[in-house]
Design brief:
- It is a single chain.
- 36% of the residues lie in helices and 23% in strands.
- The chain is an alpha+beta fold and 593 residues long.
- It folds into 3 domains: 9-195, Histidine kinase-like ATPase, C-terminal domain (Heat Shock Protein 90, 2-Layer Sandwich); 205-332, Ribosomal Protein S5, domain 2; 334-593, MutL, C-terminal domain, dimerisation subdomain (formyl-coa transferase, domain 3), CATH 3.30.1540.20.
- The strands form 6 sheets. Strands 1, 2, 3, 4, 5, 6, 7, 8 and 9 form a 9-stranded mixed β-sheet that branches. Strands 10-11-16-13-14 form a 5-stranded mixed β-sheet, sandwiched between helices.
- A hairpin with a 2-residue loop joins β4 (120-126) and β5 (129-130).
- The longest helix has 18 residues, at 163-180.
- The protein is elongated, with a radius of gyration of 31 Å.
Amino acid sequence: MSKLRRLPEVTVNRIAAGEVVERPASALKELVENAIDAGATQVDIVLLDGGRELISVTDNGDGMDGPDLALAVERHATSKLPDEDLLHIQWLGFRGEALPSIGAVARLSITSRALGSEEAWCIVVDGGEVGAVTPAAQAVGTRVEVRDLFFATPARLKFLKTPRTEYQHAVDTVKRLAMVRPDIGFTLSDGDRRSLDLSPSIGDLFDARLARLGAVMGREFADNALAIDAEREGIRLTGYAGLPTLNRANNRMQYLFVNGRPVRDRVLAGALRAGYMDVLAHDRHALAALFLEVPPELVDVNVHPMKAEVRFRDAGVVRGLIVSALRHAMANAGHRSSSTVSMAVLGRVQAQNFNLPYRQTQPNYGSGMMEAVAGFQAPFAAAAEPSAYVAADDNVVPANDYPLGVARGQLHETYIVAQTATGIVIVDQHAAHERLVMERMQAQLAAKDVARQLLLLPEVVELDDDGAHRIAARAEELAELGLVVEAFGTGAIVVREVPALLGESDVQGLIKDLADELAEMDQALALRERLDAVCASMACHGSVRAGRRLSVEEMNALLREMERTPRSGQCSHGRPTYVELKLGDIESLFGRR
């Protein structure tokens, strides 16, 4: 006797629900996608108890009539594949699994009124049991309510987190969908307060999208974002990416979309990191929202039950497009650095009692204020430390002729102070020169014209045996980069030539750092594939060091080159090369405003 049997429809739906409905946010995602597909311009969401008790989604889309409503809760019933073509999918929800799957594990009710209809209808699905379609009251559009999620599968409830955690997952889900469609308004409430209240953004796509991203990701992102618009082989990339100096300790502020669908994809995430490789430290993460438009035949969006992953026919083209677009945008940004840098400086100063309340009658500068001012003035006092401050001549070109101003002095033989038309700029001379050297070196490498400098006395660098072997094994590749080395007995390397750009560089430190870099690198990987990291190491050891006194001419020359050089607003680790303080901000510190 055969042991095979067909599973009951309710059981089949519950199995499907296990794939589609992982948590309340998963169910919410499916419902909001349906609202977007229905042409809604406003979507209002309420979650109670993190979505366990209630998920309510109301939209003003096209709505459904009675027969469509009955069909909507059947498995694999959809209006979004008119010709059964799975290669040219133009909608977010297309499988027809969401509603019956949710109804199999919860108490689902759908009330809808079709556009142009005088009547509204309602249907209820209770743990897989489908009720009859009945008349109801409803404005044009659809209201879906999911109550007692997973009541029909109690074991699933044990895997849910706290209501607060589940609610935050839902907030993140709605944010991602809202980024894609700035023309749609979204609200999200927990029953007591609204966590999101996003009005539709008007204007062209780029302006509307930036407004929406600012509302979701924060004003500082909108103020420090670079527009991305690039195309290659029919694939278009748009969106915004933050300046490298605007970064985070994790990647939670990185949003990636393919054909209007939020995704988490390793190819895209890896390309995003590669785009920032030589302007961001390895433990920091950029902020970005990137939107990829790919011809349907070149991407498969049907490889994941919740459509969270995609598969590209040619992942290399996609990766190359993202990396080049990001680097081009940063190059066009020139010396620009994130405005958050100066805000952080002002915040620290204010935390030290610089910004006391200003009283017009009788200012009260307490001891804390006086000590702070004395500390600020100390480096400029000739008697305090003669080498701390070098004043520049005033008979130079006016400061308003240059974005980074004119050098007025050097503090602690490390920081250049320049006066601009609207404030002051403080430059980290080592970080700035490191970026300039690196950009020049990369330009020479791209042109295959690296100038070398012969050392009068070849320098011997002692390493451990493994380190010396790694350097010697890459001697031919290093020579292409302008660094001529060869083995020198056991555990030593002799350096005969260095890139001319490095000048009087720290050869010992450079070779030791390169040995460490090579230890972490895949031996099968060519140095040119890690060119940014190698150039960064060389530039660091060939740059003007902190502690070196510069002449006025040298300081101004550095400022002018920064203005001409792409990505000079940050060093290879993503740290700012300069801080700009506006005159108005400085005046407010001293109660003048």
